[in-house]
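User: Can you help me understand a structure? I only have the sequence.
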Amino acid sequence: MKEPRTWILGASLLLIAALAFFVLRDIVLNGITLMGVVTIPVVVILGVGIIGALGTPPRR
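Assistant: Let's start by predicting it. Here is the structure, written out as tokens:
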């Protein structure tokens, strides 16, 4: 069985990918809106933070 960290990383990346998909879909359908402009940095910050935190092995 894989480490729980791997499962959490996979689920987190899936959630971030879904958020990014829906933001980009909204921008394509409705054009650039304030919500799209605000949401893009939020998704990027979440992605970088989660990948950085879970991609780094724990200290032993």
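Now, to help you interpret it: The longest helix spans residues 4-30. The chain has two helices and no strands. Let me know which part you'd like to focus on.
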